[in-house]
Design goal:
The complex is a heterodimer of chains A (499) and B (411). With 499 residues, chain A is mainly α. Chain A is 56% helix and 2% strand. In chain A, the strands form 2 sheets. Chain A has a two-stranded antiparallel ribbon. Chain A has a two-stranded antiparallel sheet with strand order 3-4. In chain A, helix 2 packs across helix 3, helix 8 packs across helix 20 and helix 13 crosses helix 14. By secondary structure, chain B is α/β, with parallel strands linked by helices.
Chain lengths: 499, 411
Amino acid sequence: MAKYRCNILKVSLSFVVGLGIWVASCHMVMQSAIAAPTETDIVHVINRLSFGPSPGDIQHVQSIGIDAYIQEQLHPETTQDSPELLRQLEQYQTLALPPMQLVRQYKYRGSGKGKPKLSPEKQKKLRRRVRIPLEEASDARLARAIASSHQLEEVMVDFWFNHFNVSASKGLTKFWVGSYEQQAIRPYVFGSFRDLLEATAKHPAMLYYLDNWQNTAPHSTTAPGRFKGLNENYARELLELHTMGVKGGYSQADVITAAKILTGWGLPQGRQRTTAKQGFYFDARRHDNSRKTFLGQSITGQGVAEGEQLLDMLANHPATAQHISYKLAQYFVTDAPPAPLVDRLAQQFQATNGDIRAVLATLFQSSEFRDTQFYQQKFKTPYEYIISVARAVDSPRNKTRFISGTLNQFDMPLYQCQTPNGYANIKTSWLNPDATLRRISLATAFVQRQGRRHPAAQSTQLQQTLGHQFSAQTQSVIDNSPQRLRAALILGSPEMMYR
Amino acid sequence: MKRRQFLQYSTFAAASGFTAMGFNSFGKQPAYSQNSADRHPRLIVILLRGAVDGLNVVVPYRETLYYEARPTLAIPEPGKTQGAIDLNGQFGLHPALADLMPLWESKQLAFVHACGLPDPTRSHFDAQDYMELGTPGSKKSEDGWLNRVLAHLPVGRPTQALNLGNRTPLILSGAKSVANLPFGRQAVRPLPLDRPPIQSAFDRLYQGDTDLSRAYQEGMEAREILKTELNTEMVQASRGAPGPTSLMTNARRLAQLFNGNAKTQIAFVSLGAWDTHINQGGSQGRLANLLRPVGKGLNQLKASLGNTFDDTTIVVMSEFGRTVAENGNGGTDHGHGNVMWVLGGRVRGGQVYGDWPGLAESQRYQGRDLAITTDFRDAIAPLLTTGMGVDPKHLNQIFPGYSPQKQLALI
């Protein structure tokens, strides 16, 4: 499998590179002889590389320094995550199951012709069972986002999931989102973009969500079943959303060619399910084996290898480097990222053959990332806001169902983004009057639920956790309000809505 | 498809929209009456989710092919037992919608037949999304078309759009504010923010002029209005569910918000359960039972709106129609063309608009469904321009990539 390719070599190589960057940056810091980073700088880095400070985070970064913190987050394999969290994650057994088994075990195949009649209780139980894989995936994701010390990894999981979006509201995808994240996203978030691209292309969640499992050579005489004909859906989004971007320079003919290349990439049927457990099956009978031209390059009929060649071309294309770099810069720096930064990131992307960690390292070292004009200017999405509040109050582990329900109310249901381009992270997508009131209500509710006795939710502790980053106006309102209201004011403050 | 430029949430955009409306002439009737300061147009969009069988709603009873294709489901000709109610000598209305006949007779109800979404999809999921985003064939849009309409109306009153339901639907998602009116008693649940000490503290936190502060201020204003208007309604418990009866049971609340100080201009309702693959029934049966409360609900809405109905347009649509032929289970399957219902005080009713394509196999879409001869956007366009006062030049911002194919004099 792709992920085992040269893995050891890559880890040690990236560690050496990381070490090198760290040494170089220490050198830079000493040479420029600037003062120690301010609390503002520290809060900024924490806000961008994590979902917000939890108690003790600021002190931690103060003691090891910003650059060491960045390295620590870029290399989660070097630190141990919270044992409590790991124990909690073990209970979500569906995350480890292979995709075809998930469908077999959880899909509702209730009453019907030739089947024994089920009692109403049994029917209810089976219908309830259908929801389990999605609920476990959701609980696991939220628990990790809130409590993992590998925060940048969680940030990147969310980023890449949105980039390669699938929605649980479409049919079978509901069984597979957890598996998709676990198998096709998580292992690759800091690795090679090419590996990430292929993992998502071959996962049943994506094959099903964007209909490629139906994609068949037109006028095929060999294709079994009722699906005959090209389905461009995945091919189009592969080019437009996943790699080159809408202005990447491909034509409609290229979209159709890409669709032809990907014919036969589908789900295992019948007996194939026992061997193709991971849910990918290449059916040569559905494949268009003709010679094709993609982006001016000739591709001969080679079965499944054509698709792999296509992914190679896309991953290496300069437009892909630009597109991915733009999105990373938008997420980490500002809604309208400066073009010079995007260009430098794209260069790094191409120079390292799409090494995500290397691009991120360049980003975090950039002057744009450290430019104070961009501090606290990224408006938090509902997901980011809720998680940041939960982290600030050191929320106990069992709040995930409540948070999941709250996300629905904010029109950002987890794993159910209706459009293939995933959830945006820019202000205009999320700022509106109704949502503002809901956030404030949520902040107040969180404080009430935590109870007066919970130490992390006390206003003085909260101000320490979050750093003293309030404007004079906000600080004055907080200081002049009754004690019992202060925690809610802090968590519902304008400053808390931004990162 | 180019990603839409997202509309800026700012008072400048609002001001320019107001100017455009005040000074542009549309040739025919002025968008606003000169007399009453209180009059301004309203639009209610009702989406029947699940693909209602339009051929049995507005029945082409002159087509022998209709009767041949639907031996058990066809609605009999007018005059026969349980027959359709004659509309114009060519089409008849499903008898379960008899409640709408007064509106037809007073020429405040019109239909546009063979109308719909010009996209080949027969997926409810995709078709509804395309219809709500206003971009057939693409789901890239960041917002729904009805929210985009909001940007082209004059601003001044916070609650511009109302959704009957808990969650903002795709058609209303976007930058402009939408108030969600949940079904049932929970309409305006008390929030911690309602308590004076908390509210005054947050008021001070958000008293500035940043876009976030303004969002807070607008939200609080909208909330005040909703609370005042619905105080009396909270006594009348509404037992609505998202089935067709919910229109009936919520018509009064909806009308109250239109009539009251809230001055809501746009509302959206979606009703489900229309996917009649099995046992659809003809003049009686499943579909009839779903249609009847909708007819009653529309009447209730008209009655509750009172004079406001003169300025209100209601449009009922569905993501696609159903097959001309009935299937082996006494029902119909996913089709293509449907019929759009348009009612309101200023509607030029009493007519069935659109070009009837006929039901011969060569005239059907893919040989099986009613063809589409009028894009749904062509039917909505006059409701927006002449009806709501939207500048026709802005239509392609509301429906990206669209240019009108036909002019329908619906209003």
